[in-house]
Design brief:
The protein has 114 residues and is mainly β. 0% of the residues lie in helices and 54% in strands. Strands 2, 4, 5, 6, 9, 10 and 11 form a 7-stranded mixed β-sheet that branches. The relative contact order is 0.33.
Length: 114
Amino acid sequence: VQLVESGGGLVQVGGSLRLSCAASGSTFRINAMGWYRQAPGKQRELVAGITSDGGNTNYVDSVKGRFTISRDNAKNTMYLQMNSLKPEDTAVYYCTAVGHRKYWGQGTQVTVSS
């Protein structure tokens, strides 16, 4: 399974970005998926997760009400809609997928400027 993120960039405080994660390869192995992020000098943290059918989602408290995770299994793509962005959201965002092991994308930088 290969994962490729896109959609990161530079945005002002209060702005929005939509991240995408395109999966390829043995996608039939994929169950749950999620987004992690890692800010400079900080540990990587789970931002949001979604079950295989998209029926259940979970979020870290700091993004609840601002971020929305979703997936389109027909397109083998997962999304993270990020609204009301704050400087503390600045990080490299990683896509993950759980199959017979955990797969990681290469990451996409999100920078929120004040």
